[in-house]
C-alpha cells in the first residue's frame, strides 16, 4: 500500500544526536542539540520547577480539557512576563497558549495566511532552519533580509536596515527577540531603537520570536528589551514565546502566541479567529506544563528562585565561552576567537565551515550542525579542552 513512500531525510538538528549515540568513541562530544546540560553534562530539571510540580500534585487537580485558547492564568502570566507589568496593563492583546515556541510560530503562520494582505515573512539571513519550514507548512512564503556578515562574524546592521527599508509597507519581518539562533549575535539596544524607527517609518509588521527570554543574559527584562521598546513606540508586534529553555520545560511544550492589537474589539475578534485555527489542529493545549509555568510566574518566592536559576544557567554558558577561548589559546591557536565571548545565548557561531565540521566529526567524534554552530550547553570543564584542541587541529592553516 505504501510501497511508493520514499524514506525521508533525518531532521538536520535532531538527527545529529542519533548519529552521536551510535558513535562508539568514548571521547565523543555532542554540541549539536540545544537543551541545557549542567556542569556534569546531565539534563537539568530546575529546582523551582520541581517545587511547583510538588505543590500542583498536592492539589489533586482534575484532568479536564483546557479551553481552546489554553489556561487563562497562564496566558496573562506569559504576556506579563514578556511585556513587564506596566506595559501589560496598557495593551490590547489576543494571547493563546501554544505547543511551545514551534506551535506558536505555526499559529503565527496560520493567522498570517488567513488575515494578512500578503502572507509572506522576511527572515534574517541566518536563522533557525526550522523557521521557513514551519511558516511554509502554514502556507506562508518566506524571503530573507541580510543579517549576518560571515567575513567579520558579526551583525551587518547597515545591510539589515537597507533591506528592511526596501520592504513594502505592511510586510511581516521576523526578529529574534534575544539570543539569535544560530549566530548568538543580537542588535545592541541602540540598534533596536533604530530598528523600531525603521519599522514605524516603513510600516512593517514586527514578528518577534522570543524563545530565550531570561536564558540569554539571566535578566528577563533585559532580554525583552526589543519587544518592550517596540510596543512602547506604538508598534503592534506579533509575538511567540517558549518556556522550553528558560524553565527547562522542553518536553512539556509550554508556549504562547500573541497578536498585539489597537483596540479591545480587534483583540476579541483576533482571539476568536485563533480559536478557530486551533480547534481543528489540536483542539486544546496540554495542561501540565502550563500549570507549572503559571505557578512559578505567579508565586513571588518561586519567581525569585527561578530568576536565580536563570542566572545560574546563563552564567554557566558565559563561563564556558570564556573557557573555550582560553583553551583555544592554550591549544596553540593564534586565530582571533574573541567573538565567542561577544555572542550571547545557547549557541556559539564559530565561523567553521562544513568541511571543518565534517573533519571534527570523522576524526574527533565531535558533533555539531554543518554551519559550525556549537551548542555551548553541551560543554563542561571535562570536555571543553578536547573540543578546543580539535577545533585548533581542523582550523589551523
Ligand atoms: N525559535 C527559536 C529561535 C528556537 O531556537 C527554538 C528552539 N530551538 C524555537 C523557536 C522553538 O522551540 P520549542 O518549540 O522547543 O519551544
Structure description:
By secondary structure, the chain is α/β, with parallel strands linked by helices. The protein has 2 domains: 14-44 and 315-395, Aspartate Aminotransferase, domain 1 (Alpha-Beta Complex), CATH 3.90.1150.10; 65-298, Aspartate Aminotransferase, domain 2. 47% of the residues lie in helices and 14% in strands. The protein is built from 16 helices and 13 strands. The chain has a 7-stranded mixed β-sheet with strand order 2-10-9-8-7-3-4, sandwiched between helices. Helix 6 (131-137) links the parallel strand 3 (120-124) and strand 4 (141-145). Helix 3 (72-83) crosses helix 12 (288-298), helix 7 (157-165) runs parallel beside helix 8 (189-202) and helix 12 (288-298) crosses helix 13 (300-330). The longest helix has 31 residues, at 300-330. It starts with 13 loop residues before the first helix and ends with a helix. The relative contact order is 0.17. The mean pLDDT is 96. Bound molecules: 4'-deoxy-4'-aminopyridoxal-5'-phosphate (PMP). Residues 34, 100-102, 128, 176, 181, 209, 211, 242, 244, 255 line the site of 4'-deoxy-4'-aminopyridoxal-5'-phosphate.
Helix and strand arrangement:
Layout (H helix, E strand, L loop, with lengths): L13 H9 L6 E2 L16 H12 L13 H12 L1 H6 L1 E8 H16 L4 E5 L6 H7 L3 E5 L2 E2 L4 E2 L1 H9 L6 E5 L12 H14 L2 E6 L9 H4 L1 H8 L5 E5 L11 E8 L2 H19 L5 H11 L1 H31 L8 H4 L4 E3 L4 H11 L1 E2 L5 E3 L8 H12 L2
Parallel strand pairs: 1-12, 3-4, 3-7, 7-8, 8-9
Antiparallel strand pairs: 2-10, 5-6, 9-10, 11-13
Amino acid at each position: 500500500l505504501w510501497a511508493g513512500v520514499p524514506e525521508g531525510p533525518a531532521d538536520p538538528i535532531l538527527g545529529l544526536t542519533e548519529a552521536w549515540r551510535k558513535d562508539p568513541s568514548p571521547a565523543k562530544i555532542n554540541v549539536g542539540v540545544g537543551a541545557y546540560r549542567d556542569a556534569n553534562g546531565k539534563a537539568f530539571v530546575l529546582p523551582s520547577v520541581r517545587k511547583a510540580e510538588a505543590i500542583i500534585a498536592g492539589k489533586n487537580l482534575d484532568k479536564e480539557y483546557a479551553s481552546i485558547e489554553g489556561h487563562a492564568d497562564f496566558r496573562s502570566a506569559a504576556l506579563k512576563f514578556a511585556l513587564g507589568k506596566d506595559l501589560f496593563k496598557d495593551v490590547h492583546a489576543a494571547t493563546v497558549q501554544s505547543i511551545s515556541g514551534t506551535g506558536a510560530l505555526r499559529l503565527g503562520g496560520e493567522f498570517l495566511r488567513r488575515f494578512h494582505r500578503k502572507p509572506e515573512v522576511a527572515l534574517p539571513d541566518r536563522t533557525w532552519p526550522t523557521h521557513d519550514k514551519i511558516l511554509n507548512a502554514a502556507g506562508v512564503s518566506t524571503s530573507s533580509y541580510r543579517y549576518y556578515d560571515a567575513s567579520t562574524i558579526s551583525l551587518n546592521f547597515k545591510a539589515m536596515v537597507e533591506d528592511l527599508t526596501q520592504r513594502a509597507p505592511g510586510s511581516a519581518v521576523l526578529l529574534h527577540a534575544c539570543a539569535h539562533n544560530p549566530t548568538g549575535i543580537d542588535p545592541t539596544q541602540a540598534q533596536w531603537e533604530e530598528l523600531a524607527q525603521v519599522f514605524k517609518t516603513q510600516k512593517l509588521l514586527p514578528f518577534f520570536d522570543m524563545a530565550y527570554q531570561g536564558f540569554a543574559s539571566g535578566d528577563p527584562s533585559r532580554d525583552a528589551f526589543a519587544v518592550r521598546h517596540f510596543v512602547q513606540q506604538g508598534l503592534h508586534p506579533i509575538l511567540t514565546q517558549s518556556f522550553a529553555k528558560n524553565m527547562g520545560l522542553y518536553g512539556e511544550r509550554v508556549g504562547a502566541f500573541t497578536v498585539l492589537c489597537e483596540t479591545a474589539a480587534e483583540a476579541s475578534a483576533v482571539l476568536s479567529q485563533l480559536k478557530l485555527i486551533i480547534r481543528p489542529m489540536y483542539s486544546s493545549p496540554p495542561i501540565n506544563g502550563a500549570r507549572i509555568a503559571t505557578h512559578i510566574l505567579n508565586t513571588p518566592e518561586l519567581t525569585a528562585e527561578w530568576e536565580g536559576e536563570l542566572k545560574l544557567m546563563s552564567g554557566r554558558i558565559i563561563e564556558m565561552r570564556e573557557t573555550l577561548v582560553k583553551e583555544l589559546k592554550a591549544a596553540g591557536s593564534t586565530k582571533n576567537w574573541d567573538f565567542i565571548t561577544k555572542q550571547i545565548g545557547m549557541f556559539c557561531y564559530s565561523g567553521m565551515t562544513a568541511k571543518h565540521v565534517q573533519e571534527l566529526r570523522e576524526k574527533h567524534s565531535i558533533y555539531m550542525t554543518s554551519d559550525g554552530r556549537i551548542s555551548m550547553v553541551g560543554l563542561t570543564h571535562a570536555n571543553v579542552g578536547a573540543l578546543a584542541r580539535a577545533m585548533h587541529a581542523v582550523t589551523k592553516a
